[in-house]
Design brief:
Strand order of the largest sheet of chain B: 1-2-3
Order of helices and strands of chain A: HEHHEEH
Structural class of chain A: alpha+beta
Distance between the termini of chain A: 29 Å
Number of helices of chain A: 4
Strand order of the largest sheet of chain A: 1-3-2
CATH class of chain A: Mainly Alpha
Helix content of chain A: 55-70%
Shape of chain B: elongated
CATH architecture of chain A: Orthogonal Bundle
Structural class of chain B: mainly alpha
Radius of gyration of chain A: 17 Å
Oligomer: heterodimer
Number of helices of chain B: 13
Strand content of chain B: under 5%
CATH superfamily of chain A: Winged helix-like DNA-binding domain superfamily/Winged helix DNA-binding domain
Distance between the termini of chain B: 78 Å
Number of strands of chain B: 3
Chain lengths: 117, 336
């Protein structure tokens, strides 16, 4: 039981940073919140709306995203896209992500942790 | 769809004022998109039960709204450990003396005892407990308010984030004995031995015009206290030259303190004063005063026992610490 709880907490912690990266990457193409959520879920990164919308607002307040309300399919929707600053930050974060990935691979390989693909 | 609107209204209630409409418009759009997609898949309108299931999955309105609220603390992570520390100190400095004073009053003040423990000690304790909590909450509340204000100031000025590593306190090693304290102990004990030997040997002493005589048990106390003082003097001299605790010295201190405490407690209960004589005072009067002095000295017995136990606990803790070697390696390096 304790092990399950610990895993769940650690998994959420690990996912938190990854979600920011995934959202920024997904918004290289303009999308509204709902389609973004679906796209992330289809790619194995399900995120509930209670997490996604506050995150979008936070990223927008940091000027990494821009948004606008527009009529689409007879409904008013808010569309998000990456800004210039957002693109730059995304590139830096992706480089960081690759470094972390390489470091963890190196650690696991040194320890002979078996298959790691 | 009334259920959806009611849900959104409930979420809206908790949202920050300036963003209510914007957030609700977006949440509403997301919710309606999800419902429409499901309806398109099923080829019919969703039932109330199905809508309810979607809303349940989204979560309680206050929790959904909470995620949009700015992260705000009454006392934030920077100040929280300090707040808890101060709170513990205040509670300890308040509750413990309160209980000690209450015990003292119950033992030494017959009037107080009659007034508050007419039926039982338990009843009296219940009375004091209830009044203690009123003031304890006030103290805790005051500390909390002060820290909440500090948190606001800290958030604006960031004064706690500016710090200098050089201003950190020096390494403390509880096993190190400071030379001034060893020297002070040596002087006090040596002076004590001189005064004791020169003035307290005889069971009959003259102080000014008063002739004081003590119990025939006195030689036990005289030699006992002298032995304890001599041991303490020798220990202080060794501590001055080798200023750190060792297991052997901690055992000697434990034995010396145990003997001293036991002797003192015995002294209080031994009706040590047998009489005194002053010119112009009747024998009956001096006997009465002698009895009164012995009575009040005897009443101090529980306090002496409590102090003795506390001192011994401190000694045992020191021994355990030395035996288990639970000191930081850097601190051990200082000691040796």
């Amino acid at each position: 039981m304790l092990c399950t709880v610990s895993f769940e907490n650690l998994r959420l912690e690990l996912r938190r940073g990854c979600l920011v990266l995934a959202v920024l990457a997904a918004l290289r193409d303009e999308q509204c919140g709902y389609t973004l959520r679906k796209a992330l879920a289809e790619n194995g990164l399900a995120i509930d709306e209670g997490t996604l919308y506050p995150l979008l607002r936070r990223l927008e307040s940091q000027r990494l995203l821009a948004s606008e309300w527009r009529q689409h399919d007879k409904r008013n929707k808010r569309f998000y896209r990456l800004t210039g600053d957002g693109t730059e930050i995304l590139e830096q974060l992706l480089a960081e992500w690759r470094d972390i990935d390489a470091s963890i691979r190196a650690i696991l390989e040194k320890q002979g942790a078996g298959s790691w693909n | 769809m009334e259920l959806v609107e009611r849900y959104l209204q409930a979420v809206q209630f908790w949202l920050p004022r300036g963003q209510k409409d914007d957030i609700i418009a977006e949440l509403s759009e997301d919710l309606h998109a999800q419902i429409e997609e499901k309806e398109a898949g099923l080829g019919r309108k969703l039932t109330d039960v199905e809508v309810e299931a979607i809303l349940r999955q989204r979560g309680r309105p206050v929790l959904v709204a909470n995620r949009f609220l700015p992260r705000d603390y009454l006392i934030g992570p920077v100040l929280f450990p300090i707040y808890m520390f101060v709170l513990k100190i205040v509670m300890l400095g308040y509750v413990v003396p309160w209980i000690l004073v209450w015990i003292g009053m119950m033992i030494y003040s017959p009037g107080y005892r009659v007034q508050h423990a007419a039926h039982s000690w338990l009843e009296a304790f219940g009375y004091v407990w209830s009044s203690l909590w009123g003031t304890a909450f006030l103290a805790a509340g005051t500390v909390t308010v002060v820290f909440a204000v500090l948190e606001r100031v800290q958030k604006k000025s960031g004064f706690l984030e500016k710090w200098d590593p050089h201003k950190l306190p020096p390494l403390r090693n509880p096993n190190v004995i400071t030379r001034p304290s060893a020297f002070f102990e040596l002087v006090i004990n040596a002076l004590g031995v001189v005064v004791w030997v020169t003035n307290m040997y005889s069971p009959v002493t003259m102080i000014s015009e008063v002739r004081i005589s003590v119990s025939p048990l006195w030689p036990w106390f005289f030699w006992g206290f002298l032995l304890v003082s001599l041991v303490n003097t020798a220990l202080a001299a060794v501590n001055l030259t080798r200023p750190f605790w060792t297991t052997q010295r901690a055992i000697v201190r434990l034995l010396s303190d145990a003997t001293g405490s036991a002797l003192f407690c015995w002294l209080l209960k031994a009706n040590i004063l047998t009489g005194f004589a002053v010119a112009g005072m009747s024998l009956e009067r001096t006997a009465e005063i002698t009895q009164l002095i012995n009575y009040w000295v005897g009443r101090a017995f529980p306090i002496a026992v409590a102090i003795g136990v506390a001192v011994l606990c401190g000694n045992i803790y020191r021994l355990v610490r030395l035996k288990t070697g639970r000191t930081h390696p850097a601190l051990q390096a200082i000691a040796h």
